[in-house]
Design a protein that fits this description.
Distance between the termini: 53 Å
Number of domains: 1
Strand content: over 45%
Number of helices: 2
Largest sheet: 5 strands, mixed, barrel
Keywords: Signal
Order of helices and strands: HHEEEEEEEEEE
Number of strands: 10
Helix content: 10-25%
């Protein structure tokens, strides 16, 4: 085979490899979050966290997620994220409910290993050169803390410095049924 013909065959094979579709789990955030940021309010109902071991917690959370009064929620999205010390995981974005009462959020069960906080997001900013990772815009969070010297679930400020630089991996097929209304 001539060198030019071999080069043409290699180029054709490589073109086929690079033209292959991207797997569903490798989501590009710009495609996921290509809608406007909408002012979001979260009304927490019942919530609790129980430590199962040093790095695992069981989460029980009931909340309502809705766009702020006067915001156009029809164009926006929200998501739930589980933050760990070295980043976190976010579920695929959900549309806001059309009724004024909002979208009910129900979380029950063990959080992803190492989770220290669970937050509702209203946007994820892409991280350069990593198509399925980004920085979350947190609206409301709960996490492990202390109440009267006892470890318990507490509200965590979205501006808490522990979130600084925490990169989220956006998943479309979360492996456990942690959030019943997020998948």
């Amino acid at each position: 085979m001539r060198p030019r013909r071999l080069l043409a065959v290699v180029a054709t094979v490589l073109a086929g490899v690079f033209a292959a579709p991207v797997p569903a789990s490798a989501i590009v955030i710009n495609d996921l979050w290509s809608w406007p940021v909408v002012c979001t309010e979260v009304e927490f109902g019942d919530y609790a966290m129980t430590r199962l071991d040093a790095l695992e917690i069981d989460v029980h959370l009931r909340a309502t997620v809705r766009p702020c009064a006067g915001s156009d929620g029809a164009q926006g999205r929200w998501a739930l994220a589980a933050y760990r010390p070295a980043g976190g995981l976010a579920w695929r974005a959900q549309p806001y409910a059309t009724e004024p009462t909002g979208t009910p959020l129900a979380v029950d069960g063990p959080a992803p290993y190492g989770t220290w906080a669970v937050c509702v997001l209203n946007y994820i900013s892409p991280v350069r050169d990593t198509p399925n990772q980004g920085l979350g815009s947190r609206v409301a969070c709960i996490g492990m803390g202390e109440v009267d010297g006892v470890e318990a679930a507490v509200r965590v400020s979205p501006a808490d410095t522990r979130f600084t630089g925490a990169t989220l991996t956006v998943l479309t097929d979360f492996p456990t049924p942690f959030c019943s209304t997020c998948v």
